[in-house]
Amino acid sequence: MLTKRVIPCLDVRDGRIVKGVQFSDLRDAGDPATRAAAYQRQGADEIVILDVSATLEARQAALETVRAVRRVLSIPLTVGGGLRTCADAEQLLAAGADKVAVNTAAVDRPAILTELAEAFGVQCTVLAIDAARVADGAAQWEVVTHAGQTRTGRSAPDWASEGVDRGAGEILLTSWDRDGSRSGYDLMLIDAVARRVSVPIIASGGAASADHMVAALQCGADAVLAASVFHDGEFTVGDIKQTLADAGTAVRR
User: Fold this and answer.
1) Half-sphere exposure of 218 toward its Cβ, with a 13 Å CA cutoff?
2) Which of 33, 104, 197, 207: disulfide with 226, CB 3.0–4.6 Å?
3) Active-site position among 45, 51, 130, 177
4) Rg for the chain (alpha carbons), in Å?
5) Where are the chain's structural domains?
């Protein structure tokens, strides 16, 4: 039986972890390497680093931050933020990333997914999707880019399906509406995307409890990603995994 993954997320800016709501009102949440090492000791399956200002500032994710985290980490590391070309991806992989996540650049030029998959393999190519509801209460979501500043009008489930066809081996699916809200993952969004793709889905946005994570995994996610609940010390990764196991979810212990 394949185990479900628990993944702490490090949103970084200027070499520090930051946390806020929908990438605004950011507060400092510590040193990336220190946090990554602690989460690995707690039993994290992977670490995700997202440079939250790289796209807006038209630059690539800070390579030194990636190197510093890699030095203390032996579990898989995914890095995203500002990636535009295969050359950018190659630099991130050389710095220590195992997988690269692409969001805005893929929306702007979908062919980059195929280029990444052909150059580095589908297992290395992660399509990050930030999805916002089209209308309050409606079961429709559109892709947003540039840290939520640009609404594309593109259907998130449709884009996930196209992205997989183009070479993405995994989907990092974030509910823009739920990000930082602590109201739980958008289960309808997860279900809608899971019905369209066969690759693993990492659910992101809104987690505040292990019960939220259980629900996301039962809805079709293969992994759950969270930040605040770990950074603020409300739960350890081990706490979450214990609750998941008690609920009958297979996890790596």
Assistant:
1) 11
2) 207
3) 130
4) 16
5) 5-246
The predicted model gives 145-174 an average pLDDT of: 94
3-state SS track over the chain: CCCEEEEEEEEEECCEEEEEECCEEEEEEECHHHHHHHHHHHCCCCEEEEECCCCCCCCCCCHHHHHHHHHCCCCCEEEECCCCCHHHHHHHHHHCCCEEEECHHHHHCCHHHHHHHHHHCHHHEEEEEEEEECCCCCCCEEEEECCCCEEEEEEHHHHHHHHHHHCCCEEEEEECCCCCCCCCCCHHHHHHHHCCCCCCEEEECCCCCHHHHHHHHHCCCCEEEECHHHHCCCCCHHHHHHHHHHCCCCECC
Give me the pLDDT at residue 125, please: 98
| pTM for the structure as a whole | 0.92
pLDDT per position as a tens digit, 25-45: 566 657 999 999 999 999 999
Is 11 noted as a catalytic residue in this protein? Answer: yes
Query: Taking a C-beta distance cutoff of 8 angstroms, is the pair 61, 51 a contact?
Result: yes
Catalytic site includes residue 177: no
Q: Is residue 133's pLDDT more than 50? A: yes
To 5 degrees, how large is the angle CA 70–CA 46–CA 79? Answer: 60
pLDDT category at 59 given cuts 50, 70, 90 is very low
Task: Give the residue with greater pLDDT, 1 vs 197.
Answer: 197
